[in-house]
Amino acid sequence: MKGIDDLKAGVAVIILNEEKQVLLQKRSDVGLWGIPSGHVEIGETVSGAAIREVKEETNLDIRIKKLIGVYSDPNSQVFAYPNGKVVHFITTCFLAEITGGELRCNSSESLEIKFFEQQNLPQDLLKMHPLWLNDALANRELAFIR
């Protein structure tokens, strides 16, 4: 595939509060809303990366509840950064629950962090995130592979 600079392992974490609202972050790199997500570091498990990324970005402690899916389709998983770098992500998406911490922007990667009603998500959402969210809300036993 042309124009892709790198392939990276990514993680994304769907977090719902007691009112079933979805936690989203407004990313500082592209100014769009998205599900807390990030890269897997060398020597790290995908679940460990998910827990670390959520802590870094939201200050929340979480427990992974289940695997939502693994996403690798270039049509939705290729991301162009503002600096021109284009990365194809293979993303492992989890559903998690909050076990502690106090919600706050805990990183220079986030402009804002807040919960949204599922029916009232922001319009400026990253292109791959609605699919992850829809899959999480499908309440399916088996993980999606897309």
From TrEMBL:
Taken from the record, one Pfam family name reads NUDIX
Tell me which cofactor or cofactors this protein depends on.
Answer: Mg(2+)
SUPFAM superfamilies in UniProt: Nudix
Ordered alphabetically, the record's keywords are: Hydrolase
Xref: Gene3D superfamilies? Nucleoside Triphosphate Pyrophosphohydrolase
Please indicate if the UniProt record lists Acetylation as a keyword: no
Going by the entry's taxonomy, the superkingdom of the source organism is recorded as Bacteria
**Does the entry feature the keyword Flavoprotein, yes or no?**
no
Residue span(s) of domain Nudix hydrolase? 6-139
The UniProt entry, under PANTHER family, shows:
8-OXO-DGTP DIPHOSPHATASE-RELATED, GDP-MANNOSE MANNOSYL HYDROLASE
Protein name, UniProt field: NUDIX domain-containing protein
Q: State the species of origin.
A: Bacillus aerolatus
